[in-house]
Structure to design on (886 residues):
C-alpha cells in the first residue's frame, strides 16, 4: 500500500503547479500536452513495456476514443463525460478484434500487423466523410467538457494520469505483473510455468486500449477542437508515445511521465522558435532521442535512476559465494504435492499415451507411440538423438498438439491442452537447455511457479522462500538468475518447477553439461523429489547414472517405442543396443555384472 | 476487356517498382533477423539525392543517377549498420530494439528532408515522364517501362550476386545458420553490414526509378513502408524471391481493387490482404512453417 501515496502527491503537486501558473493559455496548453502524452505513454507502457508487445498501431485506440466521443457529441449531443467511456468500450472491442488474431504473432510481426489497422481506418473514415470533425462549442461548460480556462482540462488530465499510473502500479505489483514480466522474457518457460501467455497479453492489450481511449477524448476536447483522421489516427501519436516511453524507460511507472516533462516542452519550444523555418524540428528531436536512448541507455532515464538507487542500497550484500553449494548428505525434501485432481487414486499409472503421432512436414518425429507412466516412480526415457524424446515431452506438455492419438493424465484427456493448462493440472517441466527468466532474481523465478498454487503474491512469496531454502538456494535469492553457473541454473529450474507443485515432472537431459559429482548429486535430488510423491519422467543420455535412479524405462528409436519395462530389460533389448547403446555396452555391462 | 488488361499491366509495373525495395527489405529480414522500419525512407532520400538534385545541378538524367546511387547508398548503408545496428545484434531484445531504432531513423530522415528541401511535392520533368506508348487503347508510360527494365536488371543482379559469388553465398549462409557460419570463418558482423548495405543500395536506386514518373514529398515513405512489409510478409518474410512475387501481388491488388472499391480505398484492399494473410497464414504464401520450441 506504500506504493500509491507518491502518485497522489505528484498529482496534487501538478494540479497546484498548474493552478499557480495562472490561466495563460499557451503555458497551460503545454502543461496539458505533457499530461496527455504522459497518460497516453503510460497506457502504452502496459502492453508494450510490461507485456513486451510493441504496438506500432497504438494510435488506433487514442483515435477511437477521440472519434467516438467527438462524433457522439457532435451528432447525438451525448456528453463527452459519457462519450469517453463509450469510446473506451469501442477501443476495447477494437483491441480484441486486433489482438485475438495478431497476438499469436511474434515480436516485430505483431508490431507491423497492428499498424495496418489505423492505415485501414483513415481512408475509410475519410471516405464516409468524417475526415474533419469540428467539435461545436456549446458553452455549457462542465457538462460538455468545454472550458475557456485550460486549467480545468489540466485538472481532468491529471486525474486521468493518476488513475492510469495507479493501474500501472497495481499491475506491476500483482501476480498479473509477474506473469507479464515472465512471458516478456521467455514465453516458452512462462507457458510451462502455468502462465496463459496469450490470455495475459490480450488482457493487457485491452487495458492499454481502454485507457488510451480515455486520453483520446481529452485530446480531442482539450487540444484538437477540430479532429482530423490524420491527427487522431496518424503516425504523430505513436511517434510521441513511443519516444516518451522509450526515453523514460519501458516497464517503469515514473519513466513515461518524467520523459513527457522533458520531451514535450522541449519539442514545443523548438517548434515555436524554429518551427516556421524548420518545420520538422520537433520530430527530429523525437527521432534522435529514440536512437540515442536505444543505443546508450536502453533501460531509459527512470530505469537508469532506479538501477543507481538500488545498486547503492544493496551493494553490501554482494558476496560471491556459490548460490547452491553441493554438500554431501543434502537431502532435498520438497513439499509433498497435492494436485487438485485425483480421479483414479487406485490406478497405478499416472499418464497414458495412446498411439500418438507427430510430424514436422514430412518428418515423422513420433510414430504411434503408446506408453504408460507408473505413478510415484521414476521413469527413464532413452534413445539416440532424433529419436523423438524431446518431442514426446513437448507433445505431453502441450507445446505441440499430436496429429493423432490421445494423452490421458489422471483419467483426464489432455490431448489438446495448452502447456499452461497442463501446468495447472499438475504437469511440471524442465528443459534440455535451462529456460530461466534471466533478468529476474532467483526468488522471482521461483515465485512465477508458486503463483499457480497461491492465493496472492504474499503467499507465493512465502512458498518460494521455503522452496529456495529446501533446495539450498536461499543464500542469494535476490540476485539475478543471469550470472548463475549451469549447476545453479538447473537447481533453479527444478525449484521453479517444484513451486508449481506438480504431480508429474518431465525432466529433459538434466545431467548434460554437468561434471560427475554434480550429476550424481542431481540424481540424488531427483530421487528426493520422487520420494516426496512426485512421479518423474527423465530423458538422459548418461545411461549409467540413469540406471541408478530409475524404476522403469522406455526406449525410443526413430519415433517409435521399441522397448518399455524394467530398466534391465530395456538396456538389454537388442533393438536398443543396436540403435543406441552399441555392442560395447553389452560387453562392458556383462563384464561388470 | 482493355481496361482489365490496362489494370493488370499497371499492377505489374507498380508491383515491380515495389519489388526492388521489397527484395532489399527481405534480404535484411532474412539475414539480420531484424525489421528495418526506415527502409522506405532510403527510397525517398534517393528521389531527392541524387535523382532530383543531380538533375537540377548538372542535368544528370535520373536513370543514370539510379546507377550512381548504388555505390552512394551502399556506403551509407554500411556506415549506418556500423553506427546503429551492429551493437544491437545478438542481444536478447535485438528485434524490438532495432525496430525502434529504425523507427527513430525514419523520423530523422523524413524530417531532415523536410527541413532541408521543404515539404513541397516535387516532380522530375523529363521527356519520358509523361510520354506514353499506345497499343490499341492501352497506354504505357515511357518512364515506367524504362524503370521496369532497370528494376528487373537490379533484381536479377541481386540474385546473381547472392547465388553466384562467394560473398553472396556467405550472405545466404549467414541467413541460414549464423552459428555454423561463425565456425566456418565467416565474419558475421561484416556479412550483416554487407547485406544491409546491398539492401539499402537497391532501395536508394529503386526509389529513383519510382521518382521518374510520380511526384514525391518527404513523407512519401510513410505511405509505402507498410506496402513493402505486406510484400515481404506475403512472400514468407525471409525469402527474396517470395518478396518479389509478394510485391507483384500487392501491385495487382492495388490496381485491380479499383474495379470494386473507390480509388481512395485502394490501400485499404492492400492492408486488408496483409491482415488476412497474418491471420490465416502468418508464415506467408511462400514461407515454410518453422518449429516453435
Amino acid at each position: 500500500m506504500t506504493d500509491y501515496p507518491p502518485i497522489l502527491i505528484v498529482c496534487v503537486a501538478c494540479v497546484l503547479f498548474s493552478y499557480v501558473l495562472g490561466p495563460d493559455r499557451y503555458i497551460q496548453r503545454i502543461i496539458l500536452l505533457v499530461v496527455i502524452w504522459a497518460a497516453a505513454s503510460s497506457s502504452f507502457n502496459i502492453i508494450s513495456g510490461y507485456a513486451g508487445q510493441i504496438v506500432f498501431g497504438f494510435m488506433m485506440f487514442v483515435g477511437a476514443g477521440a472519434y467516438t466521443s467527438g462524433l457522439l457529441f457532435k451528432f447525438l449531443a451525448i456528453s463527452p463525460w459519457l462519450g469517453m467511456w463509450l469510446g473506451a468500450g469501442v477501443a476495447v472491442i477494437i483491441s480484441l478484434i486486433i489482438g485475438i488474431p495478431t497476438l499469436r504473432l511474434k515480436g516485430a510481426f505483431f508490431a507491423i500487423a497492428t499498424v495496418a489497422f489505423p492505415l485501414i481506418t483513415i481512408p475509410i473514415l475519410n471516405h464516409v466523410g468524417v475526415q474533419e470533425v469540428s467539435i461545436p462549442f456549446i458553452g455549457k461548460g462542465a457538462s460538455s467538457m468545454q472550458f475557456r480556462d485550460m486549467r480545468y482540462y489540466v485538472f481532468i488530465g491529471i486525474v486521468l494520469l493518476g488513475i492510469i499510473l495507479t493501474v500501472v502500479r497495481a499491475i506491476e505489483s500483482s501476480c498479473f505483473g509477474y506473469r507479464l514480466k515472465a512471458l516478456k522474457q521467455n514465453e516458452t518457460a512462462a507457458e510451462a510455468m502455468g502462465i496463459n501467455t496469450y490470455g495475459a497479453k490480450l488482457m493487457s492489450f485491452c487495458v492499454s486500449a481502454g485507457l488510451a481511449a480515455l486520453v483520446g477524448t481529452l485530446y480531442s476536447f482539450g487540444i484538437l477542437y477540430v479532429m482530423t483522421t490524420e491527427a487522431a489516427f496518424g503516425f504523430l501519436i505513436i511517434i510521441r508515445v513511443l519516444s516518451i516511453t522509450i526515453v523514460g524507460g519501458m516497464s517503469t511507472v515514473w519513466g513515461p511521465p518524467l520523459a513527457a516533462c522533458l520531451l514535450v516542452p522541449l519539442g514545443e519550444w523548438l517548434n515555436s522558435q524554429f518551427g516556421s523555418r524548420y518545420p520538422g524540428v520537433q520530430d527530429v528531436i523525437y527521432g534522435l532521442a529514440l536512437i540515442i536512448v536505444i543505443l546508450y541507455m536502453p533501460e531509459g532515464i527512470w530505469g537508469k535512476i532506479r538501477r543507481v538507487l538500488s545498486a547503492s542500497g544493496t551493494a553490501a550484500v554482494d558476496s560471491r559465494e556459490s548460490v547452491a553449494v553441493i554438500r554431501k548428505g543434502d537431502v532435498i525434501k520438497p513439499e509433498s504435492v497435492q494436485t487438485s485432481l485425483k480421479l483414479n487414486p487406485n490406478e497405478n499409472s499416472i499418464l497414458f499415451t495412446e498411439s500418438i503421432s507427430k510430424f514436422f512436414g514430412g518428418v515423422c518425429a513420433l510414430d504411434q507411440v503408446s506408453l504408460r507412466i507408473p505413478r510415484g516412480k521414476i521413469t527413464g526415457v532413452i534413445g539416440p538423438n532424433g529419436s523423438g524424446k524431446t518431442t514426446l515431452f513437448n507433445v505431453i506438455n502441450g507445446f505441440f498438439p499430436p496429429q493423432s492419438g490421445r494423452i490421458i493424465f489422471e483419467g483426464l484427456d489432455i490431448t489438446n491442452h495448452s502447456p499452461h493448462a497442463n501446468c495447472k493440472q499438475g504437469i511440471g517441466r524442465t528443459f534440455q537447455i535451462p529456460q530461466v527468466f534471466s533478468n529476474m532474481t532467483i526468488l522471482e523465478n521461483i515465485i512465477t511457479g508458486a503463483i499457480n498454487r497461491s492465493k496472492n503474491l504474499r503467499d507465493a512469496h512465502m512458498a518460494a522462500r521455503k522452496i529456495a531454502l529446501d533446495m539450498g538456494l536461499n543464500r542469494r535469492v535476490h540476485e539475478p538468475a543471469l550470472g548463475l553457473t549451469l549447476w545453479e541454473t538447473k537447481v533453479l529450474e527444478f525449484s521453479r518447477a517444484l513451486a508449481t507443485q506438480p504431480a508429474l515432472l518431465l525432466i529433459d537431459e538434466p545431467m548434460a553439461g554437468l561434471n560427475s559429482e554434480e550429476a550424481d548429486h542431481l540424481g540424488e535430488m531427483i530421487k528426493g523429489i520422487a520420494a516426496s510423491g512426485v512421479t518423474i519422467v527423465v530423458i538422459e543420455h548418461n545411461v549409467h547414472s540413469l540406471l541408478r535412479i530409475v524404476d522403469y524405462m522406455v526406449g525410443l528409436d526413430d519415433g517409435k517405442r521399441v522397448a518399455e519395462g524394467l530398466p534391465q530389460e530395456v538396456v538389454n533389448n537388442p533393438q536398443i543396443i543396436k540403435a543406441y547403446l552399441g555392442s560395447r555396452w553389452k560387453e562392458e555391462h556383462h563384464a561388470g555384472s | 476487356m482493355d481496361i482489365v488488361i490496362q489494370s493488370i499491366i499497371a499492377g505489374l509495373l507498380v508491383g515491380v517498382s515495389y519489388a526492388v525495395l521489397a527484395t532489399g527489405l527481405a534480404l535484411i529480414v532474412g539475414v539480420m533477423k531484424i525489421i528495418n522500419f526506415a527502409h522506405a525512407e532510403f527510397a525517398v532520400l534517393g528521389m531527392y539525392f541524387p535523382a532530383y538534385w543531380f538533375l537540377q545541378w548538372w542535368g544528370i538524367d535520373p536513370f543514370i543517377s539510379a546507377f550512381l546511387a548504388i555505390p552512394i547508398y551502399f556506403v551509407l548503408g554500411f556506415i549506418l549498420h556500423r553506427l546503429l545496428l551492429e551493437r544491437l545484434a545478438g542481444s536478447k531484445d535485438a528485434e524490438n530494439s532495432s525496430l525502434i531504432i529504425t523507427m527513430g531513423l525514419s523520423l530523422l530522415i523524413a524530417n531532415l528532408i523536410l527541413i532541408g528541401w521543404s515539404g513541397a511535392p516535387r516532380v522530375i520533368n523529363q521527356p519520358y515522364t509523361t510520354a506514353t506508348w499506345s497499343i490499341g487503347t492501352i497506354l504505357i508510360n515511357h518512364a515506367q517501362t524504362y524503370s521496369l527494365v532497370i528494376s528487373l536488371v537490379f533484381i536479377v543482379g541481386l540474385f546473381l550476386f547472392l547465388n553466384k559469388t562467394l560473398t553472396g553465398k556467405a550472405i545466404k549462409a549467414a541467413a541460414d545458420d549464423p552459428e555454423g557460419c561463425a565456425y566456418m570463418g565467416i565474419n558475421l558482423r561484416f556479412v550483416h553490414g554487407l547485406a544491409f548495405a546491398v539492401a539499402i543500395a537497391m532501395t536508394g536506386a529503386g526509389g529513383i526509378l519510382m521518382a521518374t514518373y510520380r511526384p514525391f514529398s518527404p513523407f512519401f515513405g510513410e505511405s509505402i513502408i507498410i506496402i513493402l512489409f505486406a510484400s515481404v510478409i506475403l512472400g514468407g518474410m525471409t525469402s527474396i524471391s517470395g518478396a518479389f512475387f509478394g510485391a507483384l501481388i500487392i501491385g495487382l491488388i492495388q490496381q485491380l481493387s479499383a474495379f470494386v472499391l473507390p480509388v481512395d480505398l485502394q490501400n485499404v484492399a492492400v492492408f486488408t490482404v496483409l491482415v488476412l494473410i497474418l491471420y490465416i497464414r502468418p508464415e506467408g504464401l511462400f514461407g515454410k512453417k518453422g518449429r516453435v520450441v
